[in-house]
Structure formats: structure tokens, C-alpha cells
């Protein structure tokens, strides 16, 4: 490593300038020659039989290229077939020369439905005699895996209700023993609302048919290889016939994985022309898949000194109309963050007639930690213990068994709690509080994910580096890659360019999600840069007739130690590998890696709030996030990530909620009504970084994206109790809900 | 290697179907959002001063975006500055919203020229007092190097005329000694016409400005990395700010390297919008750079038994208005194909007021071999020796010194001559001849080229391979790569896909030219596939818990020898490297190579013709090409390459000629007048492949593109003498020229 340390020094985002100037091209900006526009017609009913579709008039409208029903697509499950299972389910796809014609044609399609009884509440869905939701063969498996969490769990073998596609159980010791031995036992039932990922750019793609029966998909996706595999599987094509071109993503947060791409792809293949399928905001709220609501019954028991003895939990996720809720990860996190000799966690999913769910930043974790961290504060209060000390006493350490029996890797929970204890805000929590103000502490953790990755590092004739990756940059990871490559190779980061390719060309990378891109692809970049450096020095040794061990790479030149004038510029050496007649091969480093273990990341948050007793409004006053990030390669970006996570946590804590009425109709499905936090709603955000290095991440880095979005709900609920003396077990903490609690409701 | 041999088995071109169906997208088919159209205004004079340019009226025309003169571009030498040096030199660039407006605006630009004396004939250009051509600092160096030939020569240090930018000299022994000892000496002066590469698709590009000051160029080019370097150099940009996207090339033959791309790029950068600059056919004939005419005075002397004693040659290439003629390669080939103790070759270039030259299939070689092979026949005739035996006696062998003193690598000239001797056509040349029919034999050779190359080989989840290269496929090289990868890896070639990337993404490759892509990139593909195979077997050994040496890859599966059911499919294993949580890295092979030496390729041609004594028309009746190709990986494609070369050689021999009048005006600059051979003009073509394996080419392959285009002119001239008794030393052998010779003119 050179004397200059780029790692750990804040750096602006590479692509920031073009984004700020509005020059970034998103999928909606794409106009391919001969491109058609597509618009789905959505079911207005949460549950209904499709009796008849009459598209005669629509097909006659000039400019209409096709009006597809499920049967006309030649591939199953791209549209609702005989039955709709949520309001918003696509039933028909209109394809026309322009968007206006799509709208007009959609008006002309007559769909006759026979409404069926809908079940909207998950508990009602599990009751005997409830209408069965969806086609059971449609039920997907837990997709938290793909998003980044490891979940080796025990699948429950007992019979399940028809609308319960999955149930898991983790057990250790015997919780009855714990309750008997405990000096204090608390139990409560918590509930977390369904929320939207609320990205700025709605879901969309443009599909372009190939001559070979294949298809190219330009998509706003977090995972091009994942999308490729899904489209291939859905359409029954070999993967090599599907090409995904990842576009700039205008916000994903877990929600941009894949949605209507197979539908657009099949329409394009049938029509032999490019098809654009970009949802408008209203359709996006109805079709795109949000984060699931959950109910969690939780019981904790501890001795007087705060030693946690038992954890008993019953989690129920509301899956909407298809299985996919992250029950495994939620159960593991709930049962593994603190040591407890006795554990019994059951986690299940219920299907209801609502839009199915997908991932949202730390899938399952905000739900689990809202319950766990609220309950810990209740326990501390009951035992009159300091809530931070209670957590510290029980916090998991490296080697402790998780709920699933696997040992924790090295984790920085204790270090983060200690840093919080030392913080100025924590220290003054008792002295500095106005009337109706309170402080709330909460922890959140994420196990981290691993996925194989590869990367390339080409040395250019101008002395710069081109890093070649297949990962989608959502959060500044490319800027981080540039820093890693610069540090490892020994050049200024400004000399490093990151190139992301499509699935035909890119080195493999997993999906951007689960806080794993820097941890996995970053390591591949690190090793590719090291490979390129070795190649450069070997060429230089040959060219300069020097011993490789005597060579120094500094200021863009390679020279013999102590004799800077002896050397050659990087670009000059690289050009030797690109010259007619040259005996030197091109300089092009590569690496392919598979980290053998994930690296968990923990955050400890502290919120200071004011509760307006008259209106129930909870106003955040200050917020401190302490987080173990392993190593902050680009501290500005790490802090930016944490700011974003805090904001989303705050939204889930105080305001955001997708509400369905009893007939399954979504209320408030637009940004006019869906209550996201605005910048004016935010308190001053303070971030303190803890650096407990990971073993396999580049320069010790670990994932930072998920943890900051987790503790918010509990931190605010705990602060509200501290401020106003009421324990609220349901988020968001909307004013009416807080007011009701204040009034004893 | 598996039992199945794909190498050596004919296979259809991968991209043939889409080309035949008209689905291939060329640069002219590209329409980018906001794209502008550009059209150059060309000088009508061969030599003139530019006195004034008035674009006022043109700029006022609605739809005109810009009218650029040289001074307005901010970069030198993109347009003629103060003086034009050939008729066709771009003086002004009009940029407008559409092509019609470009035409209209061009009409409105007033350019005032002051005509200057032009020199069109190369000998006149070298005379004292001749007008000096061009800006001497514009003179490029010999670009045959880039095209593929090696030329380590002796630059002449004697003073040169102003219009002679280069002169080389090769000397061995003392030719006077040879003439004294010789039993026969012949000498003659030969002349070869200037010809166009006559690709179907005119030159063109679309340049798209970047936000960073850089530019993306979509171009019909044979060498994307070469073009990138040239554009960067011309515009003063670092290479990493220039991205070249190689489009399908509608014929190149050496002429599609780079031309107006820097001009289009600069216009796009200045206007901040994409600019399309595609020449129409008339402009292409005037602006694009053809193959140079040459005059060669040659003297040979030999003993009675046919032992060649001396070669003396004086070559003069007509460079047009800028230096760049392949004089080095011509001189080396002329002085190295046959052994001679005494040698003196001088090769020079004269500048004239005509469009500058560029490469055309085997640059310099058709000129050199027309002289050499004509002269050898004259010598054989004088000595009453069999022309084939004369060649065999003197043919260069491995280790013989070339004119430049370097030893010949392994070459198949002798083997090819022997195969010709054994051929049916050669055997019946004396018995089977009608009236006024004759046979002409000629040899052609190409030293081969080397350039570093890299390639990738990714194993897909569906068990297929993706080969990643940076070379432009002009002649079926991608199909050959698929065969190489299939053979080396052990899968069916149908399971191999070739992906070419732009300069940002591709593994480096040299320009497609000089008969070196299969020889160099092919080897990189071979090694990348071998690397991927090793990775697959290592993963399989781990996954199957087997010893790697016991594993077999067969029928798409890896299994333990003798136990096919034990194994796993390739795709299944590859997916292990792309799975969430997997301990296996992605399977992605790479190679970067630099062949240490080139591999020369030789061809021996035999033409049978009829000469119409009344009209002078030479009608080809039969044609046999024998060629050493090292190893024909895809014999159908190798034969196709040879067919194309023969046809171009026939065109140069009998018809093609770019004619300038004494004022430097091109006559016949369109496909209506430029006489290319049509399919009906072709005799039956027979090809016999000789396989003298190369040391470094994949499976022993060597370059096959250049050699077949070389011997045609001499083969036909020799056949005409055999048929009609007249020796014609000037090609093309047009009817008037032949008639004049027959009449003793």
C-alpha cells in the first residue's frame, strides 16, 4: 500500500454531477426505433372471477398493436388467468403506438368480473372457512434469501391453514423454565404497517425482441443477473437468450428486483417490436410489491440483574396474494440479537387478497426489531434498569449461537452500544429534556449477505484504470469501488473509471441488496486491482530490465527504488500491451471471489422527541445513529446511506402506511396521500461510525445499507413512552394513534 | 480434447442469418434522440488556396445547427485550413436537423478558392520545381504496421525531394556480381493502378457527446481500440474519455480504420448533441482513402539451371496527398520470397494532389507480387524453364534471411508449390487448352501480424459459454472463435455465444486486419476456454467430492470417469457460482496473450484465360488457388475468405482502376462506373488448402485473409502472355490495354 490513503477519505459520488444536472438517462427516457407502448388494465376487485374479456372495440382503434389477455400470451401467469386475487392485479395488456392510444384502448376493453368474497385481514385469512387466496402453485418461497439474509431454519411440519404458505419454528431450551426463573416477565403484541418503498422512479422496462427468439430488457432493476434468470425461467428460455441492460435506478430499496419484465418481454417477442412498459404512479402503487405488515406477539423474561432468560415470539406476516414474506430472517434476528437460554420463535405468513409483497430495506428486520426493542424497554422499565445496560448485558457476541443454531460471526453490537453510552446525547438524556420530551434507544441488526462476485481491472493507455463490474450502483458503490481500486493499485481515485455492463458482458455480481455489494463485489474489485498491479509490475520489470521487487509504483510511474528517473509511466507500460508486434500481453486483471461468511452489521439509535399531548403529534428533535460499518471506505457515502436509512425508519415510525379497506381497496395510493417524511420533518441527524473490521470485506468493510433503516420504529416508540408515559405497540405512531393512547384508548 | 472434433468441420456463420434477412443494424440505421446530421463540403480543386468562406446564408437556413470551418472547430486538421491538397478534401462541415437541410445549406455556403498548380503524376511530383503537396507535418508514417506487416527496414539517409516523405533501402551482396554471373537477366517496369476497397457500406459514424467532455463514437470500423486512440490523440483527450462502439461493418478490406470520426466527434462535442456523419457513395469515393498505385522497376538474374542470383528493384508508390504507403512491406516481400545472394531494393513514396491512401487487403503486396511474379515468368521463359520449378528451386524456406535480414518463420511456400504441381489443373495445362487460351501461375505471400490480445469465457447457468472479445468480426472470426472455444472446452459450438463489446468493456484486441485475428485473438479465446474448463472441473471436484483427474466433461455433464450418473450438468455447476450464499466463485475464464512471432501465409494461384484477339477482352476460364492456412478451423469460411480474395485479385487484374485526369479530378467515382467484378464475371473457383501448422495460432491456424488477394494480377498477366504471347506490365488488363499490346503498342 502506498503512503497515500484514499480509503477512509470522503469523496463525492462519481455519478452525482450527472444526476444533479438531470442528465442521467432512466428507462423512461429510452426511445427505441419502432417502440410500442404498453399499459396494463388492472383488476378493480380484490377477489373476482374473470367471466369475459371483450377487446373487439379496442383492437379496432387505430394505433393499437395488440390487446393481450392471459391466454393470448402463450406463457402462463403473466396476467391473471381466470381469477384476480388483488385489486391492481394486471388482467389485460394493451399495446399501442403511443401512450394516449393505450389509455383510449384500455377504456374500450370490456372485462366482466364476478366478485368473490375477499379476505383482507391476515388473522381472518387463517380462520376456518376463509376464502383461499390465489393459486397455491404461485406461492413463491422466502425471497429474503435473494435479498441478502441467510435463513437456515426449521420448517414446521404441522398442518397449516390453506392461506398459510410457510411457518418456521426455532426452539432452544424450554421457555417455561425461563418464565419460572424470571424476576420479571413482560409480553405484548406489536404491529407494523405495510409500507411502500416509495422510490421516485416508478417501475418500468423496455423489452426488445431478438432475432433468435430471445429478448433484451432495459430495466430499472437492482439485479440484472437475477432478473435475467427470472425472465428466462418464466418464459422458458435459456438464460443466454435473455439479455438485461441495467439502467440507472431512480430508487429501489429492495422493490426494484423484477415485476412486469416477463410480461413486457413476451409482448415484445410476440409483436416483434420493442415494447415499453413503464407504470405511472397510480399503477405503481397498485401493482408494485410493498413491504409486508406484521403482527408479533413477544414475551421476554429476565432476572433482577437484567439477565435475559427467555424469548418467546409468534410472528405473523401478511403476505398479500403471494407468498414471499421474510419470516425466516425476522425470526432469526428476533431470536439472536440477545443471549437467552430459552427460546421459542414461530414465524408464519398469511395470504390475503392484497398486492403481494417484495423486499424493502432490511426485509423483516424493522418488524422484528420494533417488537424486540420495544419489549426490551418495557422489561428495563419493569426491572428499573438502564435500557442500554440491559442490552449490553445480553448483547450477542462472536461465537454465540443464533436462533438457527449457527454461530454469530464477528459483530460490533457491544462496541456500538458502548459508543452510544459514551455519546453526548446519551449522557445528557436525563438532564436535557424539556416538557413532554423523551429519549428512546433501539438496536437493529442485519446478518449480512454473501454471493459470489467477479470483477475486471483493465489498465488503459492513458494510465487510468477501468473497473468492470456487473453490480448495479444504487448507493455510491461505484465510487467506493474506485477508492478501493485506487488504494490497492496505487493511483488517484480520479484515475479510476467504473464500467457496469449488461448481462451479456459483465462479470457476475449478485443483486444490489442485502448490504453486500461492497462486501462482495468490492472484494473482487480489490483483488482485480491487485492482479492488474502485479501484471503491470511484471511487465515493467521486463521492460526496465529490473527485479520486480525493486520496483516502486508512485505518482503514476513505475521505477526502480531510489531512481525515479529510471522508470516509465503507467500508460506507457500499458500501451506496450496494446501495440502492434508487441511481446507483452494486454494488462487486464481479474478476480472472482466467494466470501466464505457474511459479516453482520449492527446499529444503535437514539431518538429525542416531543409529544404534543393535545394533538398526538410526535415531533423528532434530535437523532443519533451509531453503527458498526467495519471500515468506512468513503465516510461521506456511508453517512449518506445512514441518513437515508434513518429517514426511512422515521417514515415507518411516524407516518407511512398502506391502508386497505375491508373490501381490499388501497386507500391513499399516491404521493399526494402516502405520508413520506419530507426534509422539513427531519431532526438534525448525527452519525457515529464504529469500525470493527470484517474478515473478508475490502479493507475490513461490511454492509451498511440495511442497519440504519431498522431501529427507527422502536426508538420512537420508546421515546414516546419516555416522553408521555404511554407504550404504543403499533406503528406508525400517527397523531390519532398517539392521541388515543394518551387518552387511554 | 474430447473425441468429437469441431475444429476442421465446416460451420455456418453465426451472424449469417441476420445479415441475409436484412436485420443487421449498421451505423446508418442508428437514430439517437436529438441526433443531428452532418455533411462535408468538399474541395472541387486538387490544389487551391481557400480565400474566403461565407456561411452567413447557410447559417440562417432554418434547421441548420452549425456550419463549421477549420478555424471554428478548436482542433487542428479536422478540415482543410488554408489550402486544399486534393479534390474531395473536406473544407466545411454543415450540421443540420436532417439530411435535406444539410444539402440545402451546403448549396448556400460560398467558398472562394484560388486555384494552384496541381501535380498528379508521382514522377512529375519528384521533379525539381514541382508544387509541394500538403503540409509536410501532416505526413504520416507507414501505416502498414498497424495493418499487420512487420517492417524493420533501413531508412535511406540521402536527401529526398520535397514530395518524397519516405524512402527505404534493403541491400545484400552486390547485384553487379549477380548480373555478371547470370546466364539470363531480365528487367522490366511494372505498374499497378490505384484502386478502391469498394466496400458496400460507405464510411460513417455517429458521435455522441458525453457529460464529461468525452465522446462516444458508433462507427463502422475494423479496429475500435485503434480508432479510440486516434480520436483521443487528434482531439487531445485521454483515451478513457473516448468510447468507441463498433457497429457491424458492411465491408472494410483495410479501408475502414478511421476517417472522419474525429471531425464528427468534435462537432458533437461542440454542439452537445449526437452528430451523424455518413458519407454518400459519391463522397466516399472522393474522401475515403483507397489503395496506392505503384511503379516498380525490377531486374532479375539467374543461372541456366534457374538459380536466382540477384534482385534489383526500385519501387515508387503514389501516396496521394499524405504519406502512408506500405513501401516497407512491399520491399520486404519483393526481396524475401525467393532466395538471392545479391539484393538491392529501394522503395519510396511520392506525394501527389490526390486523395491520400489507406490500407487495402494485403497493403503493398499485390503491387510487389505483380512485378515479382511477372518477372519470374519472364525469366523462366528466357531460360526455357518450367515456371513452377523455377519458383520451387528458389522459394524461401524457414530460416532463410528476408530482405530485412530477419529470418523467415516456418512457411508453407514450398508445400503450396508442390501441391500446385500435383493439381489436376496444373497437370493438364499443356494438353487442355483451346485457341488463344493460356495458363498463368503466380505466388503471393504475407508475413502475418501479431498484436497482443485478451479474451474472456464465462460459463452460464444454462450450461452455455459466453466468449467476450474486443475484435470486430469482418470475416467470420466469431464463428471460428465459437469453434475454438467449443473444442477446447468440450461443448457443442452451438452452445457458445460470442459477445463483442465496446472499448469501455472489451478485452483488448488489435485491429481486424493483417490476417491476424484468428492467430492472436483466437489464441486468447482458446486459452480463456481452457481456463474456464479448469475452473469448472475444480468446482466439480469440490462439489462432487472427487479427484479432479478422475473427472470427465462429456455431453454437457461433468462426472467421475466410468460413472456418468454420478455427475452434474455444466449449467448446474455454473449456477453454484452465482447463488446467494454460495462458497464457489463465478466461473469466468480469462486469457491475455502475445504471440512471440508472426506466421507467414503463402498462396499459389493458377489462372486459365482466353484472350479475344479482336477486342482485347481477357476472359477468365478457370482458377485454382492453393494456400497454406496452417489449420482450417472452419474450412467453409476459409474457402469463403479465399473466394473473396480471388475476386478482388481478379478485379485488380482485369478491371478496377481509379483514374485521375491531369488536373487531379477523379473520373468514374461511383459504382456505375467503377468496374468491379460481378458474379457473372467469375470463372469456377477451386481452392486447395495446405496445412503447415503455425506454432502459436490456435490449433495451428494462421492468417488466411491477405494471401488470396495478392497473386491475381500476375497470374492473369502470365496467363495472357501464355495465351497471346504478349507481356503486359500494367494492370488492370483492360481490353484497350490488351488490344494495344496485341497490336504491338
Give the DSSP E fraction of chain A (strand runs of 2 or more residues).
15-25%
Structure classification of chain A: alpha+beta
Largest interface: A-B, 57 and 57 residues
- Percentage of helical residues of chain A? 25-40%
Between the first and last Cα atoms of chain A, what is the distance in angstroms? 63 Å
User: Which CATH class of the largest domain in chain A applies here?
Assistant: Alpha Beta
**Count of DSSP helices of chain A?**
20
Q: What does this molecule look like?
A:
- 2 copies of one chain form a homodimer.
- About 2% of the residues of chain A have low confidence.
- In chain A, the strands form 7 sheets. The first copy, chain A, has a 7-stranded mixed beta sheet, with helices on both faces.
- Chain A has 3 domains: 151 residues, Aldehyde oxidase/xanthine dehydrogenase, molybdopterin binding domain (Aldehyde Oxidoreductase, domain 4, 2-Layer Sandwich), CATH 3.30.365.10; 176 residues, Aldehyde Oxidoreductase, domain 3, CATH 3.90.1170; 302 residues, Aldehyde Oxidoreductase, domain 4, CATH 3.30.365.10.
- Chain A is globular.
- The first copy, chain A, is built from 20 helices and 29 strands.
- The first copy, chain A, has 745 residues and is an alpha+beta fold.
- The interface between A and B is large, with 57 and 57 residues.
Q: What's the layout of helices and strands?
A:
The structure is a homodimer of 745-residue chains.
Chain A: H1 16-20, E1 36-42, E2 48-54, H2 56-60, E3 64-69, E4 83-84, E5 90-96, H3 99-108, E6 110-115, H4 122-126, H5 144-147, E7 166-172, H6 175-181, E8 184-192, E9 204-209, E10 215-219, H7 224-235, E11 242-246, H8 261-271, E12 275-278, H9 281-287, E13 294-302, E14 308-320, H10 327-336, E15 342-351, H11 365-383, H12 387-394, H13 413-422, H14 424-427, E16 437-446, E17 453-459, E18 465-469, H15 477-489, E19 496-500, H16 517-544, E20 551-554, E21 557-560, E22 563-569, H17 570-576, E23 588-593, E24 601-611, E25 618-628, H18 635-654, E26 659-660, E27 666-667, E28 685-690, H19 712-724, E29 730-731, H20 735-742
Parallel strand pairs in A: 1-12, 8-29, 10-11, 14-15, 18-19, 25-28
Antiparallel strand pairs in A: 1-5, 2-4, 2-6, 3-5, 7-15, 8-13, 9-10, 9-12, 13-14, 16-24, 17-18, 17-23, 20-21, 21-22, 24-25, 26-27
Amino acid at each position: 500500500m502506498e503512503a497515500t490513503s484514499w480509503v477512509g477519505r470522503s469523496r463525492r459520488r462519481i455519478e452525482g454531477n450527472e444526476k444533479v444536472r438531470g442528465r442521467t438517462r432512466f428507462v423512461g427516457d429510452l426511445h427505441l426505433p419502432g417502440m410500442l407502448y404498453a399499459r396494463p388494465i388492472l383488476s378493480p376487485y380484490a377477489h373476482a372471477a374473470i367471466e369475459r374479456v371483450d377487446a373487439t372495440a379496442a383492437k379496432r382503434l387505430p394505433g393499437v398493436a395488440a390487446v393481450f389477455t392471459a391466454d393470448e400470451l402463450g406463457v402462463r401467469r403473466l396476467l391473471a388467468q381466470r381469477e384476480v386475487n388483488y385489486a391492481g392485479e394486471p388482467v389485460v395488456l394493451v399495446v399501442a403506438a403511443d401512450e394516449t392510444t393505450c389509455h383510449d384502448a384500455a377504456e374500450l376493453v370490456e372485462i366482466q368480473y364476478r366478485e368473490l368474497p375477499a379476505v383482507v385481514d391476515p388473522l381472518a385469512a387463517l380462520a376456518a372457512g376463509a376464502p383461499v387466496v390465489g393459486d397455491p402453485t404461485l406461492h413463491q418461497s422466502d425471497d429474503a434469501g435473494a435479498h441478502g439474509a441467510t435463513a437456515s431454519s426449521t420448517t414446521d411440519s404441522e398442518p397449516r391453514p390453506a392461506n398459510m404458505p410457510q411457518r418456521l419454528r426455532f426452539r432452544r431450551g424450554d421457555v417455561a423454565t425461563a418464565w419460572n426463573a424470571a424476576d420479571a416477565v413482560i409480553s405484548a403484541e406489536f404491529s407494523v404497517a405495510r409500507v411502500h418503498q416509495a422510490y421516485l422512479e416508478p417501475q418500468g422496462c423496455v423489452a426488445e425482441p431478438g432475432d433468435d427468439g430471445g429478448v433484451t430488457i432495459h430495466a430499472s432493476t437492482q439485479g440484472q443477473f437475477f432478473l435475467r434468470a427470472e425472465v428466462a425461467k418464466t418464459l422458458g428460455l435459456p438464460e443466454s437468450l435473455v439479455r438485461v441492460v441495467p439502467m440507472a435506478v431512480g430508487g429501489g430499496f429492495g422493490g426494484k428486483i423484477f415485476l412486469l419484465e416477463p410480461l413486457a418481454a413476451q409482448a415484445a417477442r410476440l409483436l416483434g417490436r420493442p415494447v415499453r412498459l413503464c407504470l405511472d404512479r397510480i399503477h405503481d402503487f397498485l401493482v408494485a410489491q410493498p413491504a409486508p405488515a406484521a403482527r408479533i406477539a413477544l414475551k421476554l423474561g429476565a432476572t433482577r440483574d437484567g439477565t435475559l432468560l427467555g424469548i418467546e415470539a409468534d410472528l405473523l406476516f401478511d403476505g398479500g396474494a403471494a407468498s414471499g414474506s421474510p419470516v425466516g430472517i425476522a425470526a432469526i434476528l428476533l431470536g439472536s440479537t440477545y443471549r437467552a437460554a430459552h427460546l421459542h420463535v414461530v414465524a408464519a405468513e398469511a395470504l390475503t387478497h392484497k398486492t403481494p409483497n417484495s423486499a424493502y430495506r432490511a426485509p423483516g428486520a424493522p418488524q422484528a426489531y420494533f417488537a424486540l426493542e420495544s419489549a426490551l424497554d418495557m422489561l428495563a422499565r419493569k426491572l428499573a434498569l438502564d435500557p442500554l445496560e440491559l442490552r449490553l448485558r445480553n448483547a450477542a457476541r462472536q461465537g454465540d449461537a443464533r436462533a438457527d443454531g449457527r454461530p454469530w460471526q464477528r459483530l460490533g453490537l457491544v462496541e456500538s452500544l458502548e459508543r452510544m453510552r459514551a455519546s453526548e446525547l446519551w449522557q445528557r438524556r436525563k438532564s436535557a429534556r424539556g416538557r413532554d420530551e423523551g429519549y428512546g434507544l433501539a438496536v437493529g441488526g442485519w446478518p449480512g449477505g454473501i454471493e459470489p462476485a467477479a470483477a475486471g481491472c483493465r489498465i488503459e493507455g492513458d494510465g487510468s484504470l477501468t473497473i468492470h463490474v456487473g453490480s448495479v450502483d444504487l448507493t455510491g458503490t461505484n465510487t467506493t469501488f474506485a477508492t478501493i481500486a485506487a488504494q490497492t493499485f496505487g493511483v488517484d481515485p480520479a484515475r479510476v473509471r467504473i464500467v457496469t455492463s449488461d448481462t451479456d458482458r459483465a462479470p457476475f455480481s449478485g443483486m444490489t441488496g442485502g448490504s453486500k455489494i461492497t462486501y462482495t463485489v468490492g472484494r473482487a474489485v480489490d483483488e482485480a486491482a491487485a492482479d492488474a498491479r502485479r501484471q503491470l509490475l511484471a511487465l515493467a520489470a521486463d521492460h526496465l530490465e529490473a527485479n520486480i521487487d525493486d520496483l516502486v509504483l508512485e505518482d503514476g510511474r513505475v521505477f526502480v527504488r531510489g531512481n525515479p528517473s529510471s522508470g516509465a509511466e503507467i500508460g506507457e507500460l500499458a500501451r506496450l500491451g496494446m501495440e502492434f508486434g508487441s511481446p507483452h500481453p494486454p494488462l487486464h486483471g481479474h478476480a472472482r471471489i466467494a466470501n466464505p461468511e457474511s459479516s453482520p452489521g449492527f446499529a444503535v439509535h437514539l431518538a429525542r422527541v416531543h409529544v404534543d399531548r393535545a394533538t398526538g403529534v410526535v415531533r423528532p428533535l434530535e437523532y443519533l445513529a451509531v453503527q458498526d460499518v467495519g471500515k468506512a471506505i468513503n465516510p461521506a457515502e456511508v453517512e449518506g446511506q445512514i441518513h437515508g436509512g434513518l429517514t426511512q425508519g422515521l417514515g415507518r415510525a411516524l407516518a407511512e402506511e398502506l391502508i386497505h379497506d375491508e373490501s381490499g381497496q388501497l386507500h391513499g395510493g399516491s404521493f399526494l396521500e402516502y405520508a413520506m417524511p419530507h426534509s422539513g420533518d427531519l431532526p438534525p441527524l448525527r452519525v457515529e461510525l464504529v469500525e470493527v473490521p470484517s474478515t473478508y470485506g475490502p479493507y475490513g468493510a461490511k454492509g451498511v445499507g440495511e442497519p440504519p433503516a431498522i431501529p427507527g420504529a422502536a426508538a420512537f416508540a420508546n421515546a414516546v413512552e419516555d416522553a408521555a408515559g404511554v407504550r404504543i405497540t403499533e406503528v406508525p405512531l400517527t397523531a390519532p394513534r398517539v392521541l388515543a393512547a394518551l387518552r387511554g384508548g
